[in-house]
Structure formats: structure tokens, C-alpha cells
Amino acid sequence: METAPRTAPPPRRGLWRNYDFLKLWSGETVAQIGAQVTQLALPLLVLGVLDAGASEVGLVTGMQLLPALCVTPLAGLLIDTWDRRRILLSVNLGRALALAVVPVLYFADALSIPALCAIAFVVGACTAVFEVAYIAYLPVIVRQDDLVEANSKLQASYSVSQIGGPGLGGLLTKSLGAWFAILANVASYLAAFVVLYLIRHREPARTGNTAANRPRFSDIFTSFGLLWRHRVLRVLTFQAGWFNFCEQAVMTLFLVYAVKELHMDAGGVGTVLALGALGSLLGAMAAKPLGDRLGFSSTLVVSMGVASSAPLLLVLTGGSDWSSFLLAVLAFGIYGFGLTIYNVHVVAFRQSVIPLDVIGRATAAYRMLTYGPFPLGALISGVLGERIGLWNAISTIAVISVIGWLAFALVGRKSLGSAEHTEQTS
Fold first, then answer.
1. What is the DSSP code (8-state) at residue 318?
2. HEC secondary structure over 9-68
3. Residue 312 pLDDT grade (very low, low, confident, very high; cuts 50, 70, 90)
4. Which residue ranges does the record assign to the Major facilitator superfamily (MFS) profile domain (predicted)?
């Protein structure tokens, strides 16, 4: 596949003077911080208020991630047909309204696992649309030669949200309750809505009767074919799916393991995730220099190896409180460092090689295949944790993660080498 044709880029002013990008960046940052608060508060709500176990945590988490399988493909058709800025606004508002139901049910003494599953699914559906839409929208407001830098900044925001979000979520949950932490996420989504509303850029109206402009179900299969035919995209898709399964399984198990066996409270779990996320921030800062030094394929193999091996450190926990705490922080820090570097270059690569008029559908197909394993990881790990024990389950998933990376390094390296000449590593 040739490099995608692009619309006329805006004048080169630098990202710090691209005010529409700054608004998109700040809105995404606020929303991510709130989402990280809920990512911690929702399982703690299940464990604390409802006094449930690992399988129930896995079920609720899985329902929030399930839309990656059943909503994301349709989202691609929507995003390539409608105005992407309006889509971003609509789904942010939808997430806020859905989460606002949680404190209402809490005070009505009507919280239940089925209710939380339904809310989690709605929030997950809106998030699935949002994450495809903003990736498809970014090349519209940012020049192609600024995409690596722009994605580095967005990944830095994600890292900051991982630092501040869990800590804030743990603090709010411990002092005011998990329902209040979720209410804070509602406020963050509303704030993001306001900031995104202020974006001045308007996409040209999509006219014509071409296949790219008609929302047809068959276009979903065309997008999967695009990923399969492109050798590098095919390798990246398989690796991301494997890694995401293991990532979500480890995260689901660790939240329960930390509370029930390491005896951490909400503040302790939040602190582990927040300190560990410092690695993600360092990864965002190192992504471009490392890519310039090592090249595209070596950067991906090395960074994915770092991220895939990090969960092995969790296997060493279980001793003293302080040693377990420090090992967990180190594990999440190393994991975040490697994964952030990997993501910066992979996202920029996809934005560079996929034609702009089908990027929504292609991104949706990619996310369905790579995010689809998320709910499977949550559900399977919850059951596995109850069947063989939490520590044994974490150990098993950690080994599976390393096996996936070895296959990526040995089999995929040759395909990745064919992309060394692409602009996104410059």
C-alpha cells in the first residue's frame, strides 16, 4: 500500500501554535484523567459496596470492554460518514450521562452487578467510538510530519492521567466513597465536552456517491482486508491483540490480588498505579529520540519486549508489604515505559499509511481485532483467579505475555523492517 493521499495540510506553525490541536489535546487529557479514576473506582465499588469477588470484577470490567467487539466496527462507518468533531462531542456527553446514574443508584440503594454491567457497557460503547474518532480526526488538524510529535503529546497526557488518575481515584474512594470518584469522572467528561466544542476547525462536507462515503456493512469487511493485505499492519494487529489480552488479564487480577492478598486499601492501589505510570511519562518523552536512534522495527521490538516482560515482577510479590509495593510500582513503571514508546510509533504509522477517507473504518477494524481480547482477558482471568488462585493466575498470564513477544520478535521482525523508510520514524 502506498502512503495515503492527504488533504492540503495547514501551514507549518508547530503544534504549540496549532490551537485546535491544543484544544483536542487538553480535552483528551481531562477525559483520560477522569477515566482513570473510574477504572480504579468501579472495581473497588464492586469489591467494597457489593462485597463481590474476582469473577464479578471481571464481569463488570469485561462489559465495559465488550463494545470493542460489537460497537467498534459500526463506529468506523459512522466516523467516515459524519462530522468527527460532533461525534466526539456526542459520545463525551453520553459517557457523562451514563456514569451519572451510578451515584443515583447508590443513594437509592439500588446498585447491583447487572446495573453496573449495563452502565459499563454504555460507557464502553461511547469510549469505543470516541477513541476511533479522535485518532481519525487528528490527521485532519495536524500535518503528517507532526504526527509522531502529536501522538507523543497525547501519549504523555495518557501517562499523566495514569499518574494522577489512580491516585486521585484512590484518595476520593478512600475519603468520600467510590460513588463520588465516579461523579468526578462525570465532571471531567463534561469539561472535555466544553473544550472540544471550542475547536474551530470544520471538516468539509462529505459529498458524492463513492464507496468511501456510503455507510455500507460490506465496508467493514473491506477494512479488515486492508489490514490483512498490508504486511506490517497485519503483524502489528496480531501482536496488539495478544498483548492486550494479557494486559487486561493482569490488571483485572492485580486489583483483586492487591486488595485481598497484599492487603492494600484503595489509596495504596491508587498509589501503585500512579507511581508506576511515571514510566509511561518517561516513555512518551523518549519515544521520538529512541525511534530516531534505533529505527522503526528495532524500536517496536525492544519496547514491546520491555512491556511484555514487566508482569514477571508481579510474580515476586507476596513478601513484606514494602517489597510487594515497590515491586508492583516497578512492574507497572517498566510496563508503561515500553508500551508508551510502542504505541506512539504504531499509531503514527497507521495514520501515515491509511488513506484519510477510510481511516475511521480501518481504525475501527484494527481496534476490534486488538481491543476485542480485552473483555476476554477480564472474564477469563477472573474465572482463572478463582479456580487456581490469584498468584498462580498472574504467573500464568505473565509467561503467556512473554511468549507472545518472542513470536513477535522472531517472526514479525522481517515484516517490520520493510517499513524502515516510512516518514513516521523521521
1. S
2. CCCCCCHHHCHHHHHHHHHHHHHHHHHHHHHHHHHHHHHHCCCCCHHHHHHHHHHHHCHH
3. very high
4. 233-426
Contact between residue 42 and residue 111 where contact means Cβ atoms under 8 Å apart: no
Q: What is the mean pLDDT of the chain?
A: 79
Query: Residue type at 275?
Result: L
Pick from 46, 61, 274, 48: which is nearest to 166 by CA? Answer: 274
Q: Is the pLDDT of residue 10 over 60?
A: no
Which cell numbers hold the place of 406?
A: 518472542
Grid coordinates given for 20: 485546535
Longest dimension (CA), the chain: 66
Cα torsion 135, 138, 144, 148: sign = negative
Query: Strand, helix or coil at 369?
Result: helix
Given a contact cutoff of 8 angstroms between Cβ atoms, the answer to whether 167 and 271 are in contact is yes
Q: Are 197 and 89 in contact (CB under 8 A)?
A: yes
Backbone angles phi, psi at 51, to 5 degrees: 50, 45
Burial class (CB in 10 A: 0-12, 13-18, 19+), 197: middle
Mean pLDDT of 221-232: 75
Determine the Cα–Cα distance for residues 192 and 91; give it in Å rounded to an integer: 11
Distance of CA 277 to the CA centre of its chain: 14
One-letter identity of residue 18: N
Q: Which amino acid is it at 189?
A: Y
Name the residue with cell 524500536.
Answer: 299
pLDDT grade, residue 400 (50/70/90)?
very high
Q: What's the gap between Cα 49 and its chain centre?
A: 27
d(CA 263, CA 286): 35
Enumerate residues 6+ apart whose C-beta is below 8 A from 364.
72, 73, 74, 75, 76, 77, 79, 132, 220, 223
Name the residue among 199, 200, 198, 172 with its Cα closest to residue 187.
172
| Residue ranges per structural domain of the chain | 15-202+211-425
Phi-psi region of 389 (alpha: psi -120 to 50; beta: other; left: phi over 0): left
Residue type, 116: L
66 pLDDT above the threshold of 60: yes
3-state secondary structure 195-264: HHHCCCCCCCCCCCCCCCCCCCCHHHHHHHHHHHHCHHHHHHHHHHHHHHHHHHHHHHHHHHHHHHCCCC
As a CATH number, domain 15-202+211-425 is: 1.20.1250.20
pLDDT per residue as tens digits for the range 127-142: 888 887 887 788 778 8
